[in-house]
């Protein structure tokens, strides 16, 4: 029996009055887990108005009190860690270990939000001119909103609303309609942590509801994670409506393999980074560029990839789960077929993957293409599945040229034992996040998540210090207090006439 997902408006979980609903399905079985409503216009208005009203008082709450709310929240998230991971695995198809990682990376951001007093300190300079001092305050923007994707239903909402709310803003979350159960539970725990009424609102729906957030003049800032076309639309529409926007979009992440790297380390890391989470993560390694003699390792990589088996989240031996939907599976299958048509050598083919007992699952097995060129569709497009493209070049300079010519710049890595090669790569590569002997260089939350080029539209990135700047405004005060104005009290001296 599927459940009805509720809206979270002004401190209450309420049934939507909307007639349109979207089914939430288990990716391994196609069982309908829930129905998510498309919020009505009136419900969207209520969310915005409630957030506006709550901001009037929340912005005045002392920064240490806001930090203590985040401390209580992260404690509850840790207490309910496995419960959240179970909900997440059931609705997204992730393995239990992967789901736990999703939740934990979100908790780490909440812990950073608890450090907000130090992060919101302004600057000061005494005597910028004679008797004049200048100082600045970091103040909240107002109502902010977040639009989050299906692939990290815990981590990415937790990238957004805790940081925004810790800064003194109120927040409206529009999670993915494909897995809303996890964000709903996150909101329930936020209430349990003591969040005041109206500080967080959760609405559901599709493009119509997103457009409301993009056009409502009360919303000051929009955070988004998703595909390139939607990211561009969010950025253009939001900025046209004079909003601050950060839009994280697609990726085609390259790993450069130098011949002096440790062969087994490279193979192990490429397998996990390419097909983990069924390749449905924007930091997955989807292109391996083998330099010089390292191309001799491609056949061994194929052997190891072929051993990897997907399965359901309760299977402890499963390396990854199904793709999120039947549409996502079909797209990946079509891309694999296109790679073959374009002349790439398919060393491992996951097209006809099956998992015993789950014939309806959205399964795609690990897939490896060799002799891929930059003109091929499987190289140019983000596949978002367990597919790795292998290329071979003779020099590090050639590898750098390939990476820098790509339209995306989310993450990259180099495997080498040579410090000079690593230094050259990290300095010259035009990508926001670089790993050295680390396949997926997602930074911890005291740094910022910094994709470049068509992987990001905006100026200030997620979490870390940049998130504080994104969710706040700076007020600069210049003050003069002339000493001649000092009142020393009544003069008791009797003057002679």
From TrEMBL:
SUPFAM superfamilies: ALDH-like. Keywords: NAD, Oxidoreductase. It holds the Pfam family Aldedh. Residues 13-477 form the Aldehyde dehydrogenase domain. It is an enzyme of class 1 (oxidoreductase). It comes from the Bacteria. The keyword Metal-binding does not apply. One of its GO terms (molecular function) is methylmalonate-semialdehyde dehydrogenase (acylating, NAD) activity. One of its GO terms (biological process) is L-valine catabolic process. CDD domains: ALDH_F6_MMSDH (cd07085). Belongs to the aldehyde dehydrogenase family. This is methylmalonate-semialdehyde dehydrogenase (CoA acylating). It comes from Aliidiomarina taiwanensis.
């Amino acid at each position: 029996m599927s459940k009805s997902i509720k809206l979270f408006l002004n401190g209450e979980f309420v049934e939507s009055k909307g007639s349109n609903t979207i089914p939430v399905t288990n990716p391994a079985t196609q069982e309908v887990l829930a129905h998510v409503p498309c919020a009505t216009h009136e419900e969207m208005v209520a969310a915005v108005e409630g957030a506006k009203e709550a901001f009037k008082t929340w912005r005045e709450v002392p920064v240490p009190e806001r930090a203590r709310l985040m401390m209580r929240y992260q404690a509850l998230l840790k207490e309910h860690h496995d419960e959240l991971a179970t909900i997440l695995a059931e609705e997204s198809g992730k393995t239990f270990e992967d789901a736990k990682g999703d939740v934990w990376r979100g908790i780490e951001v909440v812990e950073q939000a608890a450090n907000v007093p130090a992060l919101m300190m302004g600057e000061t300079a005494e005597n910028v001119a004679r008797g004049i001092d200048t100082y600045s305050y970091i103040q909240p923007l107002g109502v902010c909103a977040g639009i989050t994707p299906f692939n990290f239903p815990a981590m990415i909402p937790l990238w957004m609303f805790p940081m925004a709310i810790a800064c003194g803003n109120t927040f409206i979350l529009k999670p993915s309609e494909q897995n809303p159960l996890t964000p709903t539970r996150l909101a329930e725990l936020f209430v349990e942590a003591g969040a005041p009424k109206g500080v967080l609102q959760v609405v559901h729906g599709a493009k119509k509801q997103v457009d409301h957030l993009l056009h409502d003049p009360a919303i000051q800032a929009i955070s988004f994670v998703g595909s390139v076309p939607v990211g561009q639309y969010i950025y253009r529409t939001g900025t046209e409506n004079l909003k601050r926007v950060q839009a994280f979009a697609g990726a085609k992440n390259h790993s450069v393999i130098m011949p002096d790297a440790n062969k087994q380390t490279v193979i192990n890391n490429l397998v996990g980074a390419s097909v983990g989470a069924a390749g449905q993560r924007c930091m997955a390694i989807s292109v391996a560029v083998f330099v010089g003699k390292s191309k001799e390792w491609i056949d061994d990589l194929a052997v190891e990839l072929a051993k990897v088996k997907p399965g359901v989240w309760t299977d402890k031996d499963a390396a990854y789960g199904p793709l999120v939907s039947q549409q996502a599976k079909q797209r990946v299958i079509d891309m694999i077929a296109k790679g073959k048509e374009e002349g790439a050598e398919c060393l491992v083919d996951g097209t006809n993957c099956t998992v015993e007992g789950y014939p309806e699952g959205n399964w795609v097995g690990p897939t490896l293409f060799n002799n891929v060129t930059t003109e091929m569709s499987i190289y140019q497009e983000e596949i978002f599945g367990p597919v790795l493209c292998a290329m071979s070049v003779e020099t590090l300079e050639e590898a750098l040229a390939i990476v820098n010519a790509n339209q995306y710049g989310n993450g990259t890595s180099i495997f080498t034992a040579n410090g000079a090669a690593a230094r050259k790569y990290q300095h010259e590569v035009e990508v926001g996040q670089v790993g050295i002997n680390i396949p997926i260089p997602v930074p911890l939350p005291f740094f910022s998540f910094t994709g470049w080029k068509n992987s990001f539209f905006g100026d200030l990135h997620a979490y870390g210090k940049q998130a504080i700047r994104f969710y706040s405004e700076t007020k600069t005060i210049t003050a003069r207090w002339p000493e001649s104005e000092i009142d020393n009290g009544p003069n008791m001296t009797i003057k002679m006439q």
